[in-house]
Amino acid sequence: MLVLRRLFALALVSVACAARLDARQATNTNAAINKIIDQVDITMHQAGPAILMLEADHKLSTSTLATQMTSIDNAFTRMRTGLAATPVSSGSNTTSPTNDEISITLSDAMQLVATSLSGIMSTGAVPGFPTMVATLDPILSGALAQYNTTLPGGLALVHIMMLDASQFLRAEGFTKTLTTLGF
User: Fold this and answer.
1) What is the pTM of this model?
2) Domain boundaries in the chain?
3) Long-range Cβ pairs for the range 114-118 (8 Å, 24+)
4) Of 12, 84, 121, 133, whose CB neighbour count within 10 A is largest?
5) Model confidence pLDDT, tens digit, residues 139-174
């Protein structure tokens, strides 16, 4: 019995020592995170309506969509690398920008991705769209995963705010992104 107690105590000590210390030693880096997320949101407020205009004007094709998809790819790649270079945030629910404010901005950008790309596959106007989705999906997933690492728990509100828009991601084949968002 005494041997089991010692073994159990040793196991507890080893787990405590091996646990990541980021969250316990973090400072509030929300301002830096917010700047990165704002840039993604700005890009999506340009690319999203541009894609919708291409659809409305019947000018949607692989070549016209590729420009906007490259812009989206680059924005979310910059998001991932920028967040990876940002220390883990202790976050804040009282000091602006709060965790929720940042998550709402990211949700807005993700909703623009989902709604602006919805229905493209069914139009048949962009034969290369599945390849574009296959390229963008892991980029989005990686950026979202890094966001949740840099702002622990940050995807919880994004998940809730994407409940309706997730159907568009599902219809277009964004399986990795949906998994990262918890769907």
Assistant:
1) 0.83
2) 27-181
3) 114/162, 114/165, 114/166, 114/168, 114/169, 114/174, 115/48, 115/165, 115/168, 116/44, 116/47, 116/48, 116/49, 116/51, 116/52, 117/51, 117/168, 117/172, 118/168, 118/171, 118/172
4) 133
5) 999 999 999 999 999 999 999 999 999 999 999 999
